[in-house]
Amino acid sequence: MALLMVASLAFAGGNKEPAKAAASNTFHVGVVTGTVSQSEDDLRGAEELIKRYGATKDGGMITHVTYPDDFMSQQETTISQIVALADDPLMKAIVVNQAVPGTAEAFKRVREKRPEILLFAGEPHEDPLVIEGAADLAINSDFISRGYTIIWAAKQMGADTFVHISFPRHMSYESLGLRRKIMEAACADLGVKFVFETAPDPTSDVGVSGAQQFILEKVPQWIQKYGTNTAFFCTNDAHTEPLLKQLATYGGMFVEADLPSPLMGYPGAFGIDLTAEAGDFPKILAKVESEVVSKAGPGRFGTWAYSYGFTVSAGLGEYAIRCIKGEATAGNMADMYKAFGEFTPGAKWNGGYYIDASTGVRAKNHMLIYMDTYIMGQGYLPTTDLEVPEKYFDIKFN
């Protein structure tokens, strides 16, 4: 598997007036996200679209619904919620972020009813070929490049051990399972010890609270076992806050979240009130950085300057609107980056189109993207400028 057409774009930004909805809306866009407990950033991105374009119930453009927290056992509910959006005769696009299992099936059913509706999948949990066959566009954080860049960043921070925390469901996903294999290979090459630790799946019987309690109890033991020069990484959003909380208390490092954001886990873990800064990511990052450095020291915790989950929800919604208006083309990376740039002024992105390892075919509707890593108290690490060695693109999932 490899990436093609690598593109790195810097967006110059400033304080711009939000885009205004047309006086008379002639179409609607559906946005489907998780709830606050499972993926708050994704939901806040949908709320940003509502701020800009209004909710359909109030005469605006955006219809926002959330899928169940226990989406694995309630796939039919998720499918029904997505498909129901197509009952609106003004619906012209549906964005799902994160595109949990069942999204591809839902998209197929929407396609049968309303083939003209644009279907965008943010951070799909289903295998690439499955979602590519159902969606007009799929977006993943770059699980190939980040398998290397996260380990490289941990090494720059002074880590001698890297602990990867996950569970069988996530490891069965090609995107997450392959990234784990790349991380393990990168650790071997860069002289970092790789360790895999298993934690409960928040969608299992223990629920979110049980999974979080496990992390709270295990981190002190892991720090004692592996040492404070250990960087930790978890594949689930719900694990992030308790992990950060305990790392701040007992030591350890954190490069960036699975879906990075200064909002991902940090406010709850460090007791940070961001009410006054809501929606202003430069101010959010500055306040989070100040609190983290004061309580845990510089150079130990990292993130992306902007929320990935927030940007994918809002950016894909903006991109869909531009495609419907004829201002952008679905699957065009430059157009997609411009839409994302509305929400990430000044950010530097890198990425490329997904290429299937077994066929060598480059997908025209599946993009992998990532941003520079920001280390609190230290600044940016130039991860988007790194040349990821070709050998990592040849690693296969199975």
How would you describe the overall organization of this protein?
The chain has helices at 36-53, 75-84, 103-113, 128-132, 145-157, 168-171, 174-190, 207-226, 237-250, 266-270, 281-296, 308-325, 333-341; strands spanning 3-10, 28-33, 62-66, 91-97, 118-122, 137-141, 161-166, 193-198, 230-234, 253-254, 302-303, 348-355, 362-371, 373-375, 379-381. It is an alpha/beta fold. It has an 8-stranded mixed beta sheet with strand order 1-12-13-6-5-4-2-3, with helices on both faces.
Biggest β-sheet description: 8 strands, mixed
- Describe the strand arrangement of the main beta sheet, using strand numbers: 1-12-13-6-5-4-2-3
| Fraction of helical residues | 40-55%
List the helices and strands in order.
EEHEHEHEHEHEHHEHEHEHHEHHEEEE
Mean pLDDT: 90
Q: What is the rounded Rg?
A: 20 Å
Question: Shape, please?
Answer: globular
Q: What portion of residues belong to β-strands? A: 15-25%
Going by helix content, strand content and strand pairing, the class is alpha/beta
Number of helices: 13
Low-confidence runs: 1-24
Beta strands, count: 15
- Give the end-to-end Cα distance, rounded to a whole number of Å: 12 Å
